[in-house]
Amino acid sequence: MREMRKIRRMAADILNCGENRIWIDSSRLEQVIGVISREEVKRLIKDGVIRKRPEKGISRYRIRLKKLKKKKGRRRGPGSRKGPRYDEKELWVRRVRAQRRFIRMLKERKIIDRRTYRRLYLLIKGGVFRDVAHIKNYIKEHKLARRI
Question: Could you tell me the pTM of the whole model?
Fold first, then answer.
Protein backbone atom coordinates (compact mmCIF):
# COMPACT_ATOMS: atom_id res chain seq x y z
CA MET A 1 0.00 0.00 0.00
CA ARG A 2 2.97 2.30 0.63
CA GLU A 3 4.00 2.20 -3.03
CA MET A 4 0.40 2.96 -4.05
CA ARG A 5 0.58 6.14 -1.98
CA LYS A 6 3.79 7.10 -3.77
CA ILE A 7 2.22 6.47 -7.19
CA ARG A 8 -0.87 8.44 -6.21
CA ARG A 9 1.34 11.36 -5.11
CA MET A 10 3.34 11.27 -8.36
CA ALA A 11 0.16 11.12 -10.45
CA ALA A 12 -1.30 14.07 -8.51
CA ASP A 13 1.85 16.06 -9.22
CA ILE A 14 1.77 15.18 -12.92
CA LEU A 15 -1.96 15.83 -13.33
CA ASN A 16 -1.73 19.00 -11.23
CA CYS A 17 -4.44 18.13 -8.70
CA GLY A 18 -4.85 16.76 -5.18
CA GLU A 19 -4.18 13.14 -4.22
CA ASN A 20 -7.85 12.56 -3.43
CA ARG A 21 -8.81 13.31 -7.02
CA ILE A 22 -6.61 10.52 -8.43
CA TRP A 23 -8.56 7.47 -9.65
CA ILE A 24 -6.74 4.17 -10.16
CA ASP A 25 -8.38 1.30 -12.01
CA SER A 26 -8.86 -1.45 -9.41
CA SER A 27 -8.95 -4.21 -12.05
CA ARG A 28 -5.35 -3.40 -13.13
CA LEU A 29 -3.77 -2.93 -9.69
CA GLU A 30 -0.91 -5.43 -10.27
CA GLN A 31 0.13 -3.34 -13.29
CA VAL A 32 0.19 -0.21 -11.10
CA ILE A 33 2.08 -1.73 -8.15
CA GLY A 34 5.20 -2.48 -10.26
CA VAL A 35 5.61 1.20 -11.24
CA ILE A 36 8.66 3.12 -9.95
CA SER A 37 9.39 6.18 -12.14
CA ARG A 38 7.43 9.23 -13.23
CA GLU A 39 7.67 8.09 -16.87
CA GLU A 40 5.88 4.87 -16.01
CA VAL A 41 3.15 6.81 -14.18
CA LYS A 42 2.78 9.07 -17.25
CA ARG A 43 2.39 5.94 -19.41
CA LEU A 44 -0.34 4.62 -17.08
CA ILE A 45 -2.13 7.98 -17.32
CA LYS A 46 -1.93 7.78 -21.12
CA ASP A 47 -3.31 4.21 -21.05
CA GLY A 48 -6.22 5.33 -18.83
CA VAL A 49 -5.26 3.21 -15.81
CA ILE A 50 -4.81 6.37 -13.74
CA ARG A 51 -7.23 9.23 -14.22
CA LYS A 52 -8.04 12.56 -12.70
CA ARG A 53 -11.51 12.68 -11.10
CA PRO A 54 -13.67 15.69 -12.01
CA GLU A 55 -13.75 18.60 -9.57
CA LYS A 56 -16.70 18.63 -7.24
CA GLY A 57 -18.58 21.88 -7.69
CA ILE A 58 -21.01 23.50 -5.30
CA SER A 59 -24.55 23.33 -6.60
CA ARG A 60 -26.17 26.71 -7.26
CA TYR A 61 -29.65 25.18 -7.42
CA ARG A 62 -30.75 26.43 -4.00
CA ILE A 63 -29.32 29.91 -4.61
CA ARG A 64 -31.19 30.18 -7.92
CA LEU A 65 -34.42 29.10 -6.25
CA LYS A 66 -33.94 31.71 -3.52
CA LYS A 67 -33.29 34.41 -6.14
CA LEU A 68 -36.50 33.52 -7.99
CA LYS A 69 -38.49 33.70 -4.76
CA LYS A 70 -36.96 37.08 -3.89
CA LYS A 71 -37.82 38.30 -7.39
CA LYS A 72 -41.43 37.37 -6.65
CA GLY A 73 -41.21 39.35 -3.42
CA ARG A 74 -40.90 36.47 -0.99
CA ARG A 75 -38.28 36.12 1.78
CA ARG A 76 -38.18 39.85 2.44
CA GLY A 77 -39.99 40.00 5.79
CA PRO A 78 -38.67 41.58 8.98
CA GLY A 79 -37.04 38.30 10.05
CA SER A 80 -34.80 38.30 6.98
CA ARG A 81 -33.43 41.79 7.46
CA LYS A 82 -30.14 42.61 9.10
CA GLY A 83 -29.31 45.71 11.08
CA PRO A 84 -31.59 48.22 12.78
CA ARG A 85 -35.03 48.94 11.33
CA TYR A 86 -34.22 52.61 11.48
CA ASP A 87 -31.54 54.84 12.92
CA GLU A 88 -32.24 55.46 16.62
CA LYS A 89 -30.48 58.81 16.61
CA GLU A 90 -32.48 60.05 13.64
CA LEU A 91 -35.71 59.18 15.49
CA TRP A 92 -34.51 60.99 18.60
CA VAL A 93 -33.55 64.12 16.66
CA ARG A 94 -36.92 64.22 14.87
CA ARG A 95 -38.88 63.76 18.10
CA VAL A 96 -36.90 66.33 20.10
CA ARG A 97 -37.07 68.94 17.33
CA ALA A 98 -40.84 68.56 17.06
CA GLN A 99 -41.24 68.92 20.83
CA ARG A 100 -38.97 71.97 21.03
CA ARG A 101 -40.80 73.58 18.11
CA PHE A 102 -44.09 73.02 19.97
CA ILE A 103 -42.96 74.59 23.27
CA ARG A 104 -41.36 77.50 21.38
CA MET A 105 -44.68 78.17 19.72
CA LEU A 106 -46.41 78.05 23.14
CA LYS A 107 -43.92 80.58 24.53
CA GLU A 108 -44.31 82.92 21.55
CA ARG A 109 -48.10 82.86 21.91
CA LYS A 110 -47.69 83.57 25.63
CA ILE A 111 -49.47 80.33 26.60
CA ILE A 112 -46.53 79.41 28.84
CA ASP A 113 -44.07 81.74 30.55
CA ARG A 114 -40.26 81.79 30.31
CA ARG A 115 -39.75 79.65 33.42
CA THR A 116 -42.17 76.95 32.29
CA TYR A 117 -40.60 76.96 28.84
CA ARG A 118 -37.15 76.41 30.34
CA ARG A 119 -38.41 73.60 32.59
CA LEU A 120 -40.16 71.85 29.71
CA TYR A 121 -37.07 72.31 27.52
CA LEU A 122 -34.91 70.51 30.05
CA LEU A 123 -37.48 67.72 30.47
CA ILE A 124 -37.51 67.25 26.69
CA LYS A 125 -33.73 67.12 26.72
CA GLY A 126 -33.93 64.44 29.42
CA GLY A 127 -36.19 62.32 27.23
CA VAL A 128 -39.21 62.52 29.54
CA PHE A 129 -41.82 62.97 26.78
CA ARG A 130 -42.74 60.45 24.11
CA ASP A 131 -44.26 62.98 21.74
CA VAL A 132 -46.01 66.36 21.48
CA ALA A 133 -49.31 64.90 22.75
CA HIS A 134 -47.52 63.76 25.89
CA ILE A 135 -46.31 67.34 26.49
CA LYS A 136 -49.88 68.63 26.07
CA ASN A 137 -51.11 66.16 28.69
CA TYR A 138 -48.29 67.14 31.03
CA ILE A 139 -49.14 70.86 30.71
CA LYS A 140 -52.83 70.18 31.39
CA GLU A 141 -52.19 67.88 34.35
CA HIS A 142 -49.76 70.29 36.01
CA LYS A 143 -51.80 73.39 35.04
CA LEU A 144 -48.80 75.11 33.48
CA ALA A 145 -50.71 76.94 30.72
CA ARG A 146 -51.94 80.49 31.32
CA ARG A 147 -54.70 79.99 28.77
CA ILE A 148 -55.63 77.31 26.25
Answer: 0.47
